[in-house]
User: Which sequence fits this backbone?
């Protein structure tokens, strides 16, 4: 009973939750890997391990990745000249750059400078996806006027940016 409790504690208090079946597969893979290393005196390939266990290659890779210890992004991965390079230093976020939020602020300011009528027309056209005819019926002006107001509003925004 005590051994069972220790196993449960170790299983349940790991940093990541991995299903029992994947964990069992990973342990079998580790055993076969060790056996193959002793036989051939070299690191076995994923294909060799998969063949020995009669498993698909993908399942072997998934199981091995599932039991690998997580690594901190702040853990040094290279340190030759004294300045350590961490994993975080190698990651780039191209979606949330300073330039993006500056452009969003500029666009917001440009839209706020428009008249309420122009804002409403742009909102109906581009946020709600309505046609110029639908917008003209809703706003109470002709389609030609909607087109002209839309074009002028877009040009004003372009000039502001």
Assistant:
């Amino acid at each position: 009973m005590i051994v069972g409790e220790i196993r449960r504690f170790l299983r349940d208090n790991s940093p990541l939750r991995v299903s029992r079946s994947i964990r069992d597969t990973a342990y079998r893979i580790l055993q076969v890997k060790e056996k193959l290393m002793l036989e051939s005196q070299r690191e076995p390939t994923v294909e060799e391990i998969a063949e020995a266990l009669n498993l698909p290659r993908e399942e072997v890779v998934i199981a091995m990745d599932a039991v690998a210890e997580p690594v901190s992004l702040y853990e040094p991965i290279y340190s030759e000249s004294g300045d350590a390079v961490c994993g975080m230093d190698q990651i780039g976020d191209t979606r949330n750059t300073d330039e993006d939020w500056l452009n969003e602020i500029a666009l917001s300011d440009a839209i706020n400078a428009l008249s309420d009528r122009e804002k409403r027309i742009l909102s109906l056209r581009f946020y709600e996806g309505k046609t110029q005819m639908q917008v003209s019926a809703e706003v109470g002006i002709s389609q030609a006027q909607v087109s002209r107001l839309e074009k002028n509003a877009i040009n004003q925004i372009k000039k502001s940016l």
About this structure: Strands lie at 76-78, 85-86. The first helix runs from residue 2 to 12. DSSP finds eight helices and two strands in the chain.
